[in-house]
Amino acid sequence: MKHNIFILFSLLAILASCGDDLASTYSDFTDGKPIHYAGKVKDVSVSPGWQCLRATWTLSNDPAVKNIIVTCASESDTIQQTLDPTATSCKIDNLSNKDYTVKVQSLDTDGSLSLADGVVSRPYTYDHESVRAFTRGVNKAFLAKDHLLLIMGNWESGIEDFHISFTATNGTEQTKQLSQQDFTTKYLDITGVDTSKPIVLHRSGRIEGCEDLIQFEDYTFTKDVLLNTDFASEMTERYGMSNDDETGFATKMQSVEVDRNLYTLEDLLYFSNAKTVYLGKNRYFDGTHFAWPTVDQTAESKWAIEKMHEIYGTDFVVYGDSYLPGFMTSGLTRKDANTLPTLNYLSTKGWTISNSETDNNNKYLSELLDNKPSTAWSSWPASGISRSMQLTIDMKKEETVHGVKIVQNNSSESEGFQPAQVSLQYSKDGQTWSDLGYVENVTLGTALGEATLVSAKKATTARYLRVTVKEQTYLGQTKVSLADIAVY
Predict the structure, then answer these.
(1) 407 near 286, Cβ under 8 Å?
(2) pLDDT tens, 239-260?
(3) Phi–psi pair at 300, nearest 5 degrees
(4) Mean pLDDT over residues 425-450, rounded?
């Protein structure tokens, strides 16, 4: 027992010694004065609102608290509010698109602040990704004479108001309220609009996580042309359209030819001065193998054709079953598949053609120069590695070149090995090469035996032509095949 009592007193002595050391250390950092903290608020939560943050909390039981201090700080600015001691919430307004740390502290009569844990939150602003992602409601708009043509997007449940303000052709200010049913209708034609004056879309609505009604930024419709990527690519390849002047290009075109597979024909509505649009005119098929150009959005494309004829008086000539098989409407004429025009092909006597790759079938390259679809060249079948082959034609002397006809192999055995694109270049010396057309990679039709005419940007003097093709992999084999490369 005496031994246990001795141990107990020893422990008490050690603890007392430690207490003296802690007190001494505490005194060193506080000049001997004790630190007092006001009662800490609890359960602090912060929710984002429209250009604001809302904070709520539970008060402490400290009777000495005389104010609640709310501090909202970002990297660049600090906002502070002093509230009554009974306050349990506040709203911090006029905030920008930043992360803010919010602290809620008690301030007692001695000027002491409670400890606080910061809560980080970001308000909803015009730059917030959720606000930017909120539907504009209109996928595409066209200002067509005195018409505002709209292709609507999806209705969102958060929409509360959606309307368009404009000046009517009689000079009065008008508002067109759009409903969920208008979105369902999808294609809208608002008539009697003075398109020379501002036409403004107004939207308000709510987004998840924000209790405030948001008045989204107004959007003013313009006559600027914004072509879809695939449509713009075809206009560039066929006509040399500059991507920096889509508006000027569309305005001046009086005839438009479209031949590729497209998502939609809606962009034709930009061509307000087009007298005629030709669909599938430049697709030349050999035999009974057809691969007509298609469009994904058929209803939208039909509406665009109808409105273009109604408003601009544009006529449409459709070849074969291009884009919209069986579709007929006012101003649309259907024709059989077009036939190749009569062209002045250059004689290939004495010409040579070579391949940049060593291939067992190079001996058949001359078949490409005979302008006979019944003969063709294919690279030797390989497996795994797809080669890019440069087929160089030496015309032996400089010739004036207006274009090149490239024909796919018409044998069913070549199906799957036709190149969808080729690179077509010319040279005078075999060293310096330039694109013959407006783009480096030219799109080809891929029906069996289909011919594609690639027109030169302008009549060109050249001795050499270079056609670059890439092998295709199909059913375990890798090769590429063509029937003709004919120069005119």
Answers:
(1) yes
(2) 999 999 999 999 999 999 999 9
(3) -65, -40
(4) 96
